[in-house]
Predict the structure.
Amino acid sequence: CASGYWSSPRSTSCEPCPPGYQCNNPAISPTVCPAGLYSGPTSTSCSSCDPGYACSEGATAPNMEEDLCPPGHYCPDGVSIVSCPIHTFNPYQGKTSSSDCLDCPSGYYCVSGTGVLSTNNLCDQGYYCNKSRVLCPSGTYNSLRGMALVEQCVACPSGFYCPINSVYPHPCTRGSYCESSSASPTPCPAGT
């Protein structure tokens, strides 16, 4: 058989090597191209897929649409799918490098592999987010999502206390008093 063709042991004719396979020995059945490699028809070997893609086994082109690297990730070598690190996001397909992962905007929290930002990525209550997610400090609370600065954690009012990460102020307990910005109730002195 000619290069790029093969023949089964009982056959007298040669068949073209199918796309997605390699036929480097005409006496052996075609071998499927592994993930990250592709081949066209009558190929004797598989070739590397394009960066920005993660070719699946048996790929027939270096840049098939179904193999395009997904948002939240980058694909440096045609086979690897690497998640963007925590505190970053990537809303686009087909990216090739970690430098394609963008810093998470203030007021949002991005886990590893975050793609398109949505309301699900807004910073949680009790936190503020400026590249990372940080607990509101003791003596403050935050009942809103999407806060970006520690100054947006509100001082706990008198008569209430706010432990770290408070969403709402807690009423001061009986037998205690709570001044403004209290992290915990203070027991009243004996005899009062």
